[in-house]
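Quick question: who can interpret this fold?

. . .
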Amino acid sequence: MALFITDECINCDVCEPECPNDAISMGVDYYVIDPNKCTECVGHFDEPQCVQVCPVECIPRDPAHDENPIQLMAKYHALMKAKGA
C-alpha cells in the first residue's frame, strides 16, 4: 500500500526530505503523498522513513492503494528506471 498523510499533519517539514522517491510535497493545507511514487521505502529502507520521523503519527497506509511487497518492489524498480538509475 502507498501511505497517505492525514489532516492531523502539523506541517513540521520533517517528512518531505526523508522520502527517497520524492513522493511527498506540500498540498493545499498540509503535506500529501503521491501514491504513484510511494513504495513505503521498499527498495531503499526496511521501514517507511516518513513514518519514522513523523512527530504526530499521521501517516497510515492508504487502503485505497492496496499493494503487496512484490508490487511495491516493482514500483520501486520502475521509478529507478525512469530516473535512469
About this structure: The mean pLDDT is 96.
